[in-house]
Write a structure and sequence with these properties.
The protein is mostly helical. It has a single domain, classed as Four Helix Bundle (Hemerythrin (Met), subunit A), CATH 1.20.120. The protein has helices at residues 2-12, 17-34, 52-71, 78-101, 113-137, 141-160, 167-191.
Length: 192
């Protein structure tokens, strides 16, 4: 962890100044996701109703799409906006099974998506989000065809998602979508 932090600092010195502002925002959101805010009666950002999943999707999107786009000077391109929306919806979809897992642990005041829509409504919204992510982010029919494997895999995982699943199901299979999805994109671009 320490070596990773040192390497990150070394690499960060090559970033544009605007990227540092974004990195500070990402760090602040991540920090206050867990650490209580001084002005919020001991609550952190994830305790704010309806906000938990959206914060996770926002931070992931800023770190994986917006920051690289700023560094490559493609921030204002149409493709960057497309990828930003696609990635946000993809990560938002992946947060829902974790909120299903935690439905009995999260305080009712958090109003997570499963607390608000119930188990089946949450699964449906999650499937719609990941499907929308593919159709927004894919720019050709071949890529959409390959990413349909991602949608089908996720559909199976959603069907298997319950509050009683072991942690390995979420940490390995649901989080595994973070690996499967980009691998399918690489495959499609290389061999499609």
């Amino acid at each position: 962890m320490y070596l990773g932090a040192i390497a990150s600092l070394f690499v960060a010195f090559g970033f544009h100044c605007s990227a540092f502002v974004l990195i500070i925002a990402i760090c602040a959101l991540s920090f206050f996701y867990i650490v209580p805010l001084l002005f919020a009666n001991g609550k952190n950002l994830r305790d704010i109703p309806h906000l938990k999943a959206y914060l996770i999707a926002l931070v992931w999107t800023m770190a994986s799409v917006v920051l690289p786009a700023m560094e490559s000077d493609t921030f204002f391109s149409g493709r960057t906006f497309q990828l930003t929306a696609s990635n946000f919806l993809f990560i938002l979809a992946l947060t829902i099974p974790f909120d299903i897992r935690d439905i009995h642990l999260d305080e009712k005041s958090k109003w997570t998506i499963p607390q608000f829509l119930g188990l089946n409504g949450s699964k449906l919204i999650s499937l719609v989000l990941i499907s929308a992510s593919v159709f927004i982010g894919a720019n050709d029919l071949i890529l959409i065809t390959h990413l349909s494997i991602s949608i089908l895999t996720y559909l199976i995982l959603l069907a298997l998602t319950t509050t009683k699943r072991q942690e390995l199901f979420f940490s390995f299979l649901i989080d595994g979508m973070l690996v499967l999805h980009p691998l399918l994109i690489i495959f499609s671009k290389s061999f499609g």
